[in-house]
Structure of Aspartokinase:
Amino acid sequence: MGLVVQKYGGSSVADAEGIKRVAKRVVEAKKNGHQVVVVVSAMGDTTDELIDLAQEVSPIPSGREFDMLLTAGERISMALLAMAIKNLGHEAQSFTGSQAGVITDSVHNKARIIDVTPGRIKSSVDEGNIAIVAGFQGVSQDKKDITTLGRGGSDTTAVALAAALDAEVCEIYTDVDGVFTADPRVVKKARKIDWISFEDMLELASSGSKVLLHRCVEYARRYNIPIHVRSSFSGLQGTWVSNEPQGDQPMEQAIISGVAHDTSEAKVTVVGVPDKPGEAARIFRAIADSEVNIDMVVQNVSAASTGLTDISFTLPKAEGRKAVAALEKTRAAVGFDSLRYDDQIAKISLVGAGMKTNPGVTATFFEALSNAGVNIELISTSEIRISVVTRADDVNEAVRAVHTAFGLDTESDEAVVYGGTGR
Amino acid sequence: MGLVVQKYGGSSVADAEGIKRVAKRVVEAKKNGHQVVVVVSAMGDTTDELIDLAQEVSPIPSGREFDMLLTAGERISMALLAMAIKNLGHEAQSFTGSQAGVITDSVHNKARIIDVTPGRIKSSVDEGNIAIVAGFQGVSQDKKDITTLGRGGSDTTAVALAAALDAEVCEIYTDVDGVFTADPRVVKKARKIDWISFEDMLELASSGSKVLLHRCVEYARRYNIPIHVRSSFSGLQGTWVSNEPQGDQPMEQAIISGVAHDTSEAKVTVVGVPDKPGEAARIFRAIADSEVNIDMVVQNVSAASTGLTDISFTLPKAEGRKAVAALEKTRAAVGFDSLRYDDQIAKISLVGAGMKTNPGVTATFFEALSNAGVNIELISTSEIRISVVTRADDVNEAVRAVHTAFGLDTESDEAVVYGGTGR
């Protein structure tokens, strides 16, 4: 049996009871003959409490000090977990991100992992210890400062360590049973996915599914580390994310992996752009210079009568104001008519590698929305994803309709083999 | 102006308000033209809360993990302090014990500092930053594990950094105005000491004065770093501890620096020890082997008629049981009659380098106790200290009587020049 990396989130180690429950599960893996490396997040709301404290002493806390502060959270949970494991009669040692060899760039609050040099972790597990590593943190390569990895940082730590240690699997423990075909809070009949490919998982993650972040899946794909997302409260199998199904996992990939939705974006439309080379470039250069990340971009053919076209894109609501301000400055240079800003939108995405070879998916998707009375405002597609923008009010109904139309509801007997009428 | 090390204890940084107040004081020193290095303890009760958490998950938390856990406390306070300072428009950087180059041995929970390599701190202050360092923690030389320094650890960190950085002074900020001629809670007329020598301060610390611990003063003496103990709540001058008085400090050392008392000890008497070579050695070897630290030791001449003597010693109450058990095992070998254990005692000590050259101090001391009706049970003296053991019930009265007898009460016009009748 090989090495296993397990990652437990803040809700799994929220209190002493939770920590003891996690300790038991870790020890179980060790007893089953695995070498075990555990990555932990900060306990429950610790990080939020530290952020509140920081804001009490300074309205704009500095990046370096903010990171120093936040990393105290994982330090507490990892030391407590190591103690709880020792209390069960097994040896455990905790390591900070720096001690674990998680080397990052110097961008505080959202550092990227540059390298992982897990020599101390390797020695520790080779000596028979369970190694506990602080998630979400590393040390900068140049200045040797403490850094944090930003959102999803602990998952990324776990995957990066799994890659560096050549682990069999990276188990991500969370408070849900795995990845579902849609958000179970919206679609009661949503089904747990047993296996999903890296590619489909990446599309789901960037389309609004929150179980795994894009960044962590991307890392796992690059180093081909299977991820097993599962509940820390039940003993059930969760969702495997990997290149190929393993063991008794379904050999044939479903046509459609799932339906994701996202209500965190807004839509900007630049109305009446002269349809000539360089105008779109000017617009998106202005957006990029203001450091706004955009998602979907749609431009339709121009009206022959006017020679003007409209360009629409979506972006996180929080960045709306910045983007609009940047665009206003280019109005004279680009010569567009007006700007429209709309934050009452939702994005609904259908993801599945099967759609590449199965005609009719798009049609069925649009039919389902139409039958549900949902109007489509923008459309964008990739090889394995179709996304539409609708009114925010329609999102739940739209997701349910699409989920049912593609036979993803739990009642259906079987993962459907879909036959349609041309995409 | 040179470099100043300031140390703030947990009560000074107990909440956001406290941290902001400390930030102002730190910035003041910087504005006065000093390079400033600040050592902080954990906020208020943080350390106790972490200890409670540890005991919830494990009855006997391991040393290594316990240290990892506890060091989270300073990490929080130092990052917050750095933020608060930046908010006042000054540059600050926080450093863990490890980053600050505090190298220790591997004895977890009470590590000793082996070396300080403050390269990063030096660069930081040379670049114009205020450097904030986590007190109480270091990194072990051999295993590179996080260690904590035990009681008084933050004070020791401050003094050690001051020595390594060749600081002008190490300022220890606390919640009292300085070192007093006696415990102000017992002696209302106790006087703040303006200056005291390292030697006298060492004797006071080991005689029960709690403002500075022996360990930190010892370190300061070895490297000749002046300590300034003062309040973080007032702007007053506190007590200077150094080799020689400085500036407008009194040039002549008072004969008596102060009266200390200690009610944390117990007394063990080994009754009827054969008065022949090797018996005392056997007794104290047994005590040492059980890792009990003893304080005063007194042996009187044996009674000529029996050839038997009694040996008494004092030790921390908490170690009484262990010492008695160790002695019981040697009863046959040593051949003593019986053991007496008494934990209702107090130790009262008079400290002052002046007593070496001023006859009559001992007589005045004993007269004062006698006039107060206090019986003396044991006596032990050093060059600059006289200690007696009395009943615990008598301690307050005894301390007050001695304090008055040596003219230490605030009403007296002047630090007395004492003339007695032979010591």
About this structure: Chain A touches chain B through 41 residues (CB under 8 Å). The radius of gyration of chain A is 24 Å.
